[in-house]
Each structure stands twice: as structure tokens, then as C-alpha cells.
Amino acid sequence: MLRFLDAGESHGPALTAIVEGLPAGFAVSEEKIHEELRRRQKGYGRGGRMAIEEDRVEILSGLAKGITTGAPVTLLLRNRDYENWKNLTEEDTAVQVPRPGHGDLTGEFKYATGNLRNSIERSSARETAIRTAVGALCRQILEELGMTVRSKVHSLYGLFDGEADLFDETVYGKIEESPMRVLSREEEFKTLVDSAKREGDTLGGWIRASLRGCPRGVGSFMAYDRRLDAQLAFAAMSIQGIKEVAVGNPFHRLTGAQYHDGIRMEEGKLKRLSNHAGGIEGGISNGEDIELWAYMKPIPSVKIKLPSVNLSTGENTDSRYERSDVTAVVPGSIVLENVLAFEILKAVLLTFSPDNKKELEAALNYRNTRQGDFR
Ligand SMILES: Cc1cc2nc3c(=O)[nH]c(=O)nc-3n(C[C@H](O)[C@H](O)[C@H](O)COP(=O)(O)O)c2cc1C
Ligand SMILES: C=C(O[C@@H]1CC(C(=O)O)=C[C@@H](OP(=O)(O)O)[C@H]1O)C(=O)O
Q1: Binding positions for FMN (predicted)?
Q2: Is 269 in the pocket of ligand 2 (CB under 6 A)?
Q3: Number of folded domains in the chain?
């Protein structure tokens, strides 16, 4: 089974991951991982940290001349900001007043270290840098098999819901190359972020990710935990700040007769007439694009003072501000793409159990040519 474990603190020396269960025989490159890491660092509304970092990984194991061998792959991503933190004392960085909405207070309930900094270090979405690197590795394998992942920010602060799409060319590439219809609403996006920043406030929004080319029959209804939609929902919800997840469009107002995607045989091939199901029925992929939506809540570090408590004195006080993004929906969408890439590859490998590229290609060819077992 494809799996990984990652480690590392936000301001520690490095983030690391060990990815185990990749099939042998796939060419993967550090440069393609760097492309995803660069995309994740961009986006209007990012704070000061991204000006410090220039995320890059080193692959320390699992490849022979750039080809996977089936051995565990180790990724190392260094934090540049560590240089600014390594000589700080515990007093310099100590935090006693929790931010509502972040993991400060809940982490202290659980780990009781007496310093909220320890919660902050590991709950931070800095971790999404290494998760993106893991996904970017998987994404290269998916692309080799004809599967592509894309995403876009659909709305910010509840605006543009269901009516228009936002598109940041610097992040998503050229509009003509995008497989999805897009409208450039970049100016409105920037105006909203600027005004939130001026007010000392933050914003959330909806993100949409799509996977094209998923083979039919990935996932299963035979057991609840093998359902593909359930696995994708778990993965999306595990991203810091994601609070709602949907498969298929969450803004539907359709009846059953309008919603369910008609089935037709055309030139000997099964076709679907629409894709409201978002590519998954009965926990199994149906060959249509997989559509995953996720809502990211507003960033918890707001400059506007919120009610909080000084945990060392027990006194009611105002929340303290910590350097932060105003919104992270753009990087969040890149994280979602790469998290989706990992999760889909995991489900594909679980379905076909290949140990190498040839076995996987043969299984996919067989699955993609079947039109049901009736003919
Ligand atoms: C890419 C990305 C960047 C984020 N940047 C910040 C930030 O700068 N400041 C902050 O307070 N939260 C930020 N968050 C959100 C918090 O990490 C998240 O709200 C927090 O860990 C609590 O987890 P929860 O919201 O899932 O409950 C970011 C999330 C992502 C995905
Ligand atoms: C470091 C990243 O995001 C961070 C996520 C984050 C948080 O609290 O989640 C807080 C900020 O970190 P810092 O306190 O160092 O400014 C963000 O910059 C990143 O995306 O690489």
C-alpha cells in the first residue's frame, strides 16, 4: 500500500518524508517537484514567510538514475527561516495566549508542554510544503499514465459563488492551456485581499480540483473504507484550514432527474451525458473527471483583536498576532491538487496491486477497454 510519513517543524531545520509503496520503473525528477513547490509559494495574499523561503527538495533514496526502484523514497526540504530562529531562546519564542481557530489551545490541552510555540510549530501549514512534494512525486507517475490534476480558486469570502471563476495565470499557467473554462477576475480578488489586509482581517474561500483520466473501477463499495469518495474527502479535510469537502458541485440545486448522469452506448462505448456525480458512483470511479471541492476557512491569525486568555496568568486578554497570510486559498488549491494526486495514486495501486510500471500499464489497459461484462 502506498503510504508516507512526514516530519518537521515550521521553523526547524527541515521537513522530511518517506514515501513507501511506489511501483518500480517510473521516471521522476526533482525539477518537477520544484515546479509544484514554486506554485504553492505563490498567490496574492501570502505573508512575509514566502519571501524568505525558496522551497526545493533533495531526493535521498529510492531512485536509480532518476527511475523508481520500488524502494522507499526519502525527501528532504530545508527551511531557510531556520537561520533566523536557530539562535532564539525559548523565552524569545514563548507563547502563552492562544489564537482562536488555530491549534494553539487544543495542542496545549493534549501535549501540555507549557509553551504554545510547540503546538504552533507542528500544527502550522508549513507541513503542506513537504506534502506537496510527496504529491508532486505521485503526480509524475499519474501523468505518465495519462492522468492530470488541475485546480482553481472558485470563490473568496463567499463572493463569485457559482457565478464566476477566479484564475491566477502566474500560478495556473496560460489560460489556453487550462482544461477548464476560466474567467479572469484577478483584480476583484486583489481588491478583496487588500481590503481585508487593511482591516487586519483574513479571508477564506472555495477551491475546486479536477482529475482527468482516472481509470474506471478505482475504489470499492465492498467495504466502507475502500470507497474512493470517502478517501478523497479524508485527504482534503486533512489539509490545514479545510472545513468542507464535496464530490461533484456543492452548489447544486437540482432534482434527482436533473442530477443523475444519463448512460448511453455510442459507437460501442459507454458514455455519460453529464458529470454531476463528480466521477464517482458507489465509491468507485466511473471514468469521468473526478471533481473535488473544498472550502478553506479564513486564516486564524487575524490582526483584529479576538477574545483570548493568557494561560500563564489565567486572565482574559486580547489574542496576539503572529505573522501570517491574509488568505491562503491559492496555495491551498495547489496543496489540494497534490494531496489529490497522492490519494488517487494510492487508490489506483490498491485496486491493481502492481509492483512495476509494466504491470500497472497492462492492468489499466484491460480496465479501460472493458464496457461492462455483458458483451
Ligand atoms: C498553505 C496554507 C497556508 C496557511 N497559512 C496560515 C497563516 O499564515 N497563518 C495562520 O494562522 N494559518 C494559516 N493556515 C491555516 C492554519 O494552518 C490552520 O487553520 C490551522 O492549522 C488550524 O487547523 P484547522 O483550520 O484545520 O482546524 C494556512 C493553511 C494553508 C493550507
Ligand atoms: C510557512 C508556510 O505557511 C505558514 C503557515 C502558517 C500556519 O500557521 O499554518 C503560518 C505562517 O508561517 P510563519 O509563522 O512562519 O509566517 C505561514 O507562512 C508555508 O506555506 O510554507
Answers
A1: 122-124, 240-241, 282, 297-301, 323
A2: no
A3: 1
Which atom of ligand 1 is closest in space to residue 300's alpha carbon? Answer: 11
Asked if 180 and 152 count as a contact pair (C-beta separation under 8 A), the reply is: yes
Burial 335-352 (b: 16+ CB within 10 A, else e): bbbbbbbbbbbbbbbbbb
* Ligand closest to CA 84: 2
- Nearest atom within ligand 1 for CA of residue 323: 8
Q: What CATH number should be reported for the domain holding residue 247?
A: 3.60.150.10
- What string of DSSP letters covers 126-140? THHHHHHHHHHHHHH
Asked whether the beta carbons of 278 and 291 are under 8 A apart, the reply is yes
What does the mean pLDDT of the chain come to?
A: 91
* Ligand 2 midpoint to CA 11 (Å): 9
Residue from 325, 329, 337 whose mutation best tests the ligand 1 pocket (most atoms within 8 A of CB): 325
Q: Which segments of the chain have a pLDDT < 50?
A: 161-184
The answer to whether 227 is a known ligand-binding residue is no
SS (H, E, C) 239-266: CCCEEEEEECCCCCCCCHHHHCCCEEEE
Q: Give which of 8, 58, 42 is closest to 335, Cα–Cα.
A: 42
pLDDT tens column, 113-166: 999 999 999 999 999 999 999 999 999 999 999 999 999 888 888 765 444 444
Position 375 scores a pLDDT of 55
Rounded percentage of the chain residues whose pLDDT exceeds 90 = 82
337 touches ligand 1 (CB under 6 Å): no
pLDDT of residue 373: 67
Q: Which domain holds residue 75?
A: 3-369
pTM over 0.90: yes
Provide the β-strand partners of residue 156.
Answer: 159, 205
Residue 249 lies in a domain: yes
**Measured from the CB, is residue 79 less than 6 Å from ligand 2?**
no
The answer, yes or no, to whether any atom of ligand 1 lies below 6 A from the CB of 241, is yes
Beta carbon of 125 within 6 Å of any ligand 1 atom:
yes
Distance 298 CA to ligand 1 centre (A): 9
375, part of any domain: no
- Tell me what pLDDT residue 177 has: 40
> Would you state the pLDDT for residue 374?
64
Q: Is the ipTM of this complex over 0.95?
A: yes
Residue 235 lies in a domain: yes
User: Is there a domain that residue 280 lies in?
Assistant: yes
> pLDDT value at position 165?
46
